[in-house]
Amino acid sequence: MNYSQNPTRLRSLLTIYQIKINLLKEGIYKLIYLIDSTEKEINETFIEQATSAGSNNAELIEEFWEFASDNIDEMTEISKLYVGAMIIEGSALIERMIIQVSFIVQDIEQCPDAPDKENQSNYFTDSIKAMEYIDNLTQISLKKSHSWEKIKLLRDLRQKLAHGFFSFRLKPNEFKNYNAKFKTSKHPLLIKINEKNNLYECSLYGDIEILMRIGWNFLDFINEVETALRIKYSF
Question: What is the pTM of this model?
Answer without folding.
Answer: 0.79
